[in-house]
Amino acid sequence: MLEEALEIEKVMLKRFRMIFSIALSLFLFVLLWFFDIYPGGYSYEEEGPILVVKEGSLHKITHHIEITDDNDLEVAYLERYIIDLRTLWLTNIGLISTLIIGYYGIFIPYYRPSYLNKASYIILYTISFIFILIIDIKFYRLKLEMISNSLKMLLVET
Fold it and tell me: Which is the most buried residue in 2, 84, 85, 145, by most CB within 10 A?
């Protein structure tokens, strides 16, 4: 009877973990897709020969860039940089959600691999999280700098 109750509790916790991770991922995805809430918050759209670039998440700054034969390659680069930044954030939504789920192993022993004790599990996940965070910050800064430089160059030309 006790074993059945523990088994039911395990199943319920697994379901909660899965539902929580899906809900977190969807919430972050909605913030990105509908409100452009992510680092930089850049978005763009082409309106005929004009490229409209919006900068910022809540207080948007709008830049209008005329697309000409002279700057069409730079405009394409700018569009690609913005797409890359959004893609990086979408990738990180899944990655961060997965890492958060992995932290359940700290609190619930049967989620932890049998060959890791609690201390080594915490150390492993913390090092992984810090490593990924450092790399992400570096990539975000690089992408934001590339977007900023490209935008400045295009705005000076027009």
Answer: 85
Contact 99, 125 (CB under 8 A): yes
Count structural domains, the chain.
Answer: 1
- Report whether 143 contacts 85 (CB < 8 A): yes
- How sure is the predictor about 33, in pLDDT bands with cuts at 50, 70 and 90? confident
Cβ atoms 75, 51 nearer than 8 A: yes
Q: Is 1 helix (H, G, I), strand (E, B) or coil?
A: coil
Q: Decide: helix, strand or coil at residue 108.
A: coil
CB contact at 8 A, 78 and 147: yes
For 119, the domain range is 2-157
Query: Other C-beta atoms within 10 Å of 2: how many?
Result: 6
pLDDT at 149: 94
Q: Give CA–CA dist 144/146, Å, rounded.
A: 5
Dig out the tokens for 106 from the structure.
Answer: 């700290």
What is the tens place of the pLDDT at every residue in 81-118? 999 998 888 888 778 777 777 776 676 666 666 777 77
